[in-house]
């Protein structure tokens, strides 16, 4: 075991991580399993890079998500008011167990399966607007609105209240360092949004998830008011944010690897396996949510002191050749089971069944409608969001160049 006492390494230049996270994390992974680094906030952190260590750490109960277990004067992170901060990403059992159990019923396989036809209908309607266009941004007109519509319908958010939601979420997840006031404005906007939405649902409950959670809060007293609002915030943001980038990255990867797209179109049975491989190959979350050891803990032979910040690199783990042979190659026939894009352990993504279903339908509907779809720019010219929290495209310019049709994928995900 080792415990480095030298000062943390200088932070990797943010531009490197935005443009080439797999190269940077890969280099660090081969240098060692755990690195004491300086984070982008200027504070020390421990970066874990190898698959086995990352997977084990994700399920280790000694690694807390509760910020109260952070060393005093250490991790600062995103500043949210208590009404938005009392969510599952900041909780350990037993509170985490209690709240997760209440919301898990919304994401059962049966409930998700019941959404399949409405999701396909929504995807087809969005694609109708792309017909006849020479070039279009697939993020703005398809990959982003589809998850927004689905998750807002699930929660019961009225159409008239959805306009500013994407801008607020983008400002929080990918903040502009030159415009810090935008993140503050986004927090204020979201807080006001959820306050009004919950008041409306209390006055006029409906058959939706948010009305059901309000009933749990008001009738059964199993949620605090902050927990109620924070849960609604998390479901809406996570249900939108990660799925947008899972879909966008998947389409970009397939268009950049036409032989893989051709194989998928030739064999609809590959769709489920392809979704897992696409999530592994270029998933939407490069780093898991930060964790804090509740006691001194050994990771990869390195002792990490209690209370210090631990960052688990999913991007590095997914390209670890010890777990995935030839990891930098996209191979939709690969068994990518065990990837960590949707988490692992008690914090495994609640919405994983919904995200998989939406992605499968999004890909199927898109390539059904536009079999000749192609990138409008070279793959290396696609611009990524400047964020370490999420890996997504600012835009995905494509040329539809296809005729309405029915691909072999339809049978699998239609």
UniProtKB/TrEMBL annotation:
InterPro entries linked: Cyt_P450, Cyt_P450_B, Cyt_P450_sf
Transmembrane regions listed in the UniProt entry: none
UniProt similarity note: Belongs to the cytochrome P450 family.
PANTHER family on file: CYTOCHROME P450 YJIB-RELATED, P450, PUTATIVE (EUROFUNG)-RELATED
Name of the protein: Cytochrome P450
Organism the protein comes from: Streptomyces eurythermus
């Amino acid at each position: 075991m080792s415990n480095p006492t030298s000062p943390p390494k200088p932070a990797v230049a943010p531009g490197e991580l935005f443009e080439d996270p797999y190269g940077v994390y890969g280099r660090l992974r081969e240098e060692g399993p755990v690195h004491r680094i300086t984070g982008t906030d200027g504070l020390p952190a421990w970066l874990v890079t190898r698959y086995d260590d990352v997977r084990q750490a994700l399920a280790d109960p000694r690694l807390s998500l509760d910020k109260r277990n952070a060393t005093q004067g250490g991790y600062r992170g995103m500043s949210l008011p208590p009404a938005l901060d009392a969510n599952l990403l900041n909780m350990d059992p037993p509170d985490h167990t209690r709240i997760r159990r209440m919301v898990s019923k919304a994401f059962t396989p049966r409930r998700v399966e019941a959404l399949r036809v409405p999701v396909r209908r929504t995807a087809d309607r969005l694609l109708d607007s792309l017909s006849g266009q020479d070039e279009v941004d697939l993020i703005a007109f398809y990959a982003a609105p589809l998850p927004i519509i689905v998750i807002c319908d699930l929660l019961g958010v009225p159409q008239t209240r959805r306009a500013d939601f994407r801008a607020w979420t983008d400002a929080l997840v990918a903040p502009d360092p030159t415009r810090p006031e935008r993140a503050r404005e986004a927090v204020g906007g979201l807080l006001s949004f959820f306050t009004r939405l919950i008041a409306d649902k209390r006055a006029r409950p409906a058959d939706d998830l948010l009305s059901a959670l309000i009933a749990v809060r008001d009738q059964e007293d199993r949620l605090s008011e902050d927990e109620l609002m924070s849960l609604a915030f998390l479901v809406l943001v996570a249900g939108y944010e990660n799925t947008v980038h899972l879909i966008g990255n998947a389409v970009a990867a397939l268009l950049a690897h036409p032989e893989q797209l051709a194989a998928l179109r030739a064999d609809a049975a590959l769709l489920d396996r392809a979704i897992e491989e696409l999530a592994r190959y270029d998933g939407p979350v490069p780093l898991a949510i930060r964790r804090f050891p509740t006691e001194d803990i050994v990771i990869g032979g390195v002792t990490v002191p209690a209370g210090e910040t631990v960052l688990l690199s999913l991007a590095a783990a997914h390209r670890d050749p010890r777990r995935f042979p030839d990891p930098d190659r996209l191979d939709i026939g690969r068994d990518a089971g065990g990837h960590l894009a949707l988490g692992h352990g008690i914090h495994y993504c609640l919405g994983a069944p919904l995200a998989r279903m939406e992605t499968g339908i999004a890909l199927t509907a898109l390539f059904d409608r536009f079999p000749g779809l192609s990138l409008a720019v070279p793959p290396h010219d696609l611009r990524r969001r400047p964020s370490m929290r999420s890996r997504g495209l600012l835009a995905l310019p494509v040329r539809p160049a296809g005729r309405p049709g029915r691909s072999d994928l339809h049978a699998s995900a239609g």
